[in-house]
Amino acid sequence: MRQQLGKSVTFAAFIAALSLAGGAYAQCSVPYQLNNGQVADATQVMGDMNALADCVDDGAPAGAANSVQVNGGGTLAGVGPLTDGQLLIGSSGNAPQASTLTAGPGVTITNGPASITISSQGGPAGPSGTVQVNNAGSFAGLQLSDGMIITGVGASFSATAKSSNLTLSDGNLVATSTNASYAAVLGSNSQSSGKFYFEFQNVRITDSNSGIGLGTAGTNFASYLGANAQSVGLEPNGGVWFNGHQVGTASAVPVGATVSIALDVTNKLIWFRTNSGLWNNSSAANPVTAVGGFPFSTIGSSVLYPAAIWREALGTTQIAMTSASWISVAPSGFGPWAPPSTPTAVNVSGAATLSNDGTLTSNARAAQSTPNNPTGTTSVGTQTMQGLAGSITPGASGRVLFMASGDGFNTAAIGQGFIVQLRYGTGATPANGSAMAGTPIGGAVKGVTAVVSSAQQIPFAVQALVPNLTPGTAYWFDLGLAAIGGGTAAIENVSLTAVEM
Length: 501
Fold this sequence. Notes:
There is one protein chain. The protein is mainly beta and 501 residues long. It contains two helices and 36 strands. The chain has helices spanning 2-21, 42-59; strands at 68-71, 76-79, 87-91, 94-99, 107-112, 115-120, 131-135, 138-142, 148-153, 157-162, 166-169, 174-177, 183-187, 195-204, 211-215, 231-234, 239-242, 245-249, 257-264, 269-274, 294-295, 305-310, 316-320, 335-336, 342-347, 352-354, 360-362, 366-369, 384-385, 390-392, 400-410, 417-425, 439-448, 458-466, 475-484, 489-500. Strands 11, 12, 14, 19, 20, 21, 23 and 24 form an eight-stranded mixed sheet that branches. The longest helix is centred in the first third of the chain and has 20 residues, at 2-21. The chain is elongated.
């Protein structure tokens, strides 16, 4: 009996030891507690042994070798093993996950065996004082010299690939023809492969030879768009022309419309849509599925530009090549023809100058003079120059308002008088009494002696706006004078003014 008791005590101690050892795993309990002096029943012993075996199983490491152990709800669960650079990252309400860090803009992460290196994608670019801009995730430096600012250079009409009888405005986004001769312009950005979208907004194309669409650098500016294999054009009535032939019909283009263009440059297919209507005026046409596009596979170059040609005065449109400028919505899979504005450093020029201390000064010029009274003229009907020597050198817009005032008279009798008119030009200043010179501007003002037989002073004022003088070029301005009826015509008390607007 003592032998049985000794064995039961030994077995109880063994169970207690395993239970204590189980502290390294999960807490373990046995169904039967065997005390000193108690006879061990086989069923109880086996129950405790099975419980201990289950505890050992539950407390064993989970997963593959080198897995990180976590509490899986009373038992161990394995995560991993972790690869280079992985960490255990919490997930609210869930078991932690093995994952690597994700690099944000301007950051580089390098994972290695038991290491993670986090670094910048390069420090500031350029020398000290350089302004930093985001260049697709890395720094680019713009260095400013005296009087420079940072400005955006975006997609617009080209200031060089255009006809002389076409004007650009609103940052070169708006093109307008100035007469009924052919006037053409290309966009500033080209594409040679891929799928793209752009718009012509507020369109005015009313002549049958006017059109909008696309062209190569070799587009014929002296013919309609689509006249040869260098361009594709949409006409006002909806006709689509390429290589001298009408290849299809899209919707007509009313004045003020927005025309959307989807272009598969790679496969040489084009779709037109007016005011968000049907592509190519067909319910079946769809750029997304490449159905119903007008082909232009034989075009003369793979480098293509938005293009417009007018054969009418005041034909106009605004180009929209970036997504922020669109009125309509691009078809899925078609990206913007041009990226958003790119910052660049430029000097302030034209209407104003920015000094190195940040002072903005107008470059507009003005001139004022009160010349001596000139010698009169006996020339009847034909003006002679008065040699007043007014002068101005425009510095900004070249848009100058010329003005002159004074008194005029004729020394002869009733019914005789004077004619006075503004004139301007470049080069040598005309002398008093010399033949007509320069360009006449504004109206010719007349003064005639009406009721007295002696010279009668008659006030006059003349003015004219010249919109297109060249900044930096010196111009003279003067008065031309002629007599009416005979006698000697003369002017006095003259005031000359020129103001750049």
